[in-house]
Amino acid sequence: MTWAGMVCLWPAVDQEGKVHESYVTRTRNKDAALRFMKRALKRHGTPEAITTDGLRSYRAAMNELGNAGKQEIGRWANSRVENRHLPFRQRERAMMQFQQMKSLQKFASVHANVHNLFNLERHLVDRQTFKERRSAALAEWQSFAS
């Protein structure tokens, strides 16, 4: 089945920018938000706070899960997740879109893992530590590739 259309990417990103979960759906409604949140909470536990955009389906899903008090919505609060989309969208454009939703889900999962491996928080460490971590990440990548 070829598929060309809009889909929603639901990422679960922590405060350091690490992607824990990526989920692709055709709809952006309460049911999709509920499935994503149940899946993320089951795998990664309950966080202290959940930052989302102003979409009402998040609020409805959080009410059903009993986490409505943990939801944070702010004008720039969701920036980490939105900025996390940028390298993903650049890679998607280079690949000339996706033809199937299954291939998009697979790509989103793999892209998150590779990005997490090489996202070393350069602004938080000195140059020597960064070089050591980068070398370790490259060695780990080469062991995966071989």
From TrEMBL:
Superkingdom: Bacteria
Transmembrane segments: none
Pfam families according to UniProt: DDE_Tnp_IS240 (PF13610)
InterPro entries membership: DDE_dom (IPR032874), IS_Transposase (IPR052183), RNaseH-like_sf (IPR012337)
DDE domain ranges (all copies): 9-118
The protein's name in its UniProt record: DDE domain-containing protein
Species of the source: Sphingomonas baiyangensis
